[in-house]
What we know:
Elements: E1 2-11, E2 14-24, E3 29-33, H1 40-47, E4 55-60, E5 63-64, H2 69-75, E6 76-79, H3 91-100, H4 108-117, H5 134-147, E7 152-156, H6 164-179, E8 183-187, H7 191-197, E9 200-205, E10 208-214, H8 220-230, H9 234-237
Parallel strand pairs: 3-8, 3-9, 6-7, 7-8
Antiparallel strand pairs: 1-2, 1-4, 4-5, 9-10
The structure holds adenosine-5'-triphosphate.
Amino acid sequence: MISTKDLTKKFGDLTAVDHLSLSVKEGELLCLLGANGAGKSTTINMLLNFVAPTSGSATINGLDATRHPIKTKEFITYIPENLMLYPMLTAIENLDYFSGITGRQLAQSSLTGFLEEAGLQKDAFHKRISTFSKGMRQKVGIAIALAKDTKVLLLDEPTSGLDPKASNEFGNLLQKLRGKGVAILMATHDLFRAKVVATHIGIMKDGKLVQQFVADDISLPQLEKTYLETMNYKEVLS
Ligand SMILES: Nc1ncnc2c1ncn2[C@@H]1O[C@H](COP(=O)(O)OP(=O)(O)OP(=O)(O)O)[C@@H](O)[C@H]1O
């Protein structure tokens, strides 16, 4: 569903992503961890064709994201740290607009059904997004993914700034999407949420994928220790 092969991005002399090969299959959730500047966002941006690779390939649903940018985006829902929605439109109007971009015209009853499934409280459906908390906006993002019947979800720091309850709710929604066979790639600094929601965890450093785990095979303390050792933060452990 999502794959990269020797994906590389250079910005001048800086190699932001360095021969990165990864794969996320249907129903899997890969969390990418790594320090600021490790190359997580650049990887996601190449899958979205926001950034052109220097070499290697980024593939969505078997299609090269660089050569088929419009077709591949039909399969993708992208939720960044701050989801761009129209602040003066209501939740339902935003959902109608963003699901309509891919040619779907959904009845009001379907739109409200998706907002409900995404856990947004009913009294917010007809309120303007400008009045929403970040957690509520993220739920509209999930409703868009549901309405698009998305195959691939790309998430960049989606839980940063969410309180623990909202972050937990968001994690539960990701599990629901996994259950529908969505392939999910999530860049995050939140080791706890990564351990709870991921099926697979990767640690990036200097543009390279330097560690990979099956999430069930590693405990949270082990993950934290490995992460810190990988970052050479050995002094924190002593
Ligand atoms: N458009 C750009 N032009 C030049 N350098 C860039 C550009 N985009 C990213 N970089 C650099 O590429 C490297 C990787 O950045 P990237 O944003 O992918 O890291 P990240 O792992 O997502 O970091 P963070 O956790 O801070 O979001 C960084 O050194 C960054 O400064």
